[in-house]
Write a structure and sequence with these properties.
About 25% of the residues lie in helices and about 20% in strands. The chain has a 5-stranded parallel beta sheet. Strands 5-7-8 form a 3-stranded mixed beta sheet. The protein is α/β, with parallel strands linked by helices. The protein has one domain.
Amino acid sequence: MADVFDNEADPAARDRLWGLICQTPNLDWLLLTKRIGNVPKMLPGDWRDGYPNVWLIVSVDQPSLERDVPKLASIPAVVHGVSIEPQLTPVGLGRFAGLLQWAINGGESGAGSRPFRLEWARSLAAECRSAGIPIFIQRLGSKPQDHGIPLHLKDHAGGNWNEWPVDLRIRHFPQATDR
């Protein structure tokens, strides 16, 4: 519920988190950050090749993907992933696809949310499929549009996949190495 790699994050709280992660080896921890540049200096001293139960994920749009995915890939982790949620513009993984083991995608929800064009999700899903990257579509958001036509969903956050187009009901996970 917080970015533990934020400069304002309490180092003592981060140390407690590392201890908890080590005490729960059968639980996979997904650490999502917008601040991938901070990660190397904030990892625990025993990180070495990464903890076997920690997946590192960076939140990106197209410009930050190109800047941050190489940084992400340089940090040892069992899974490297991107979160393109909310997706507000087209995003392509391009030459960076080979550095990733997972992608999360979805639209924005809540008051003031912006449109999520389903053709963006379809394009990203097709690119992930072609590259062999599992993709997890989290939600369509509050303002999904299919080729410019607004979809009116009962679930105002767009999280009920029974209301989604069938081709976007994709929730795949990476296969992390056995511990």
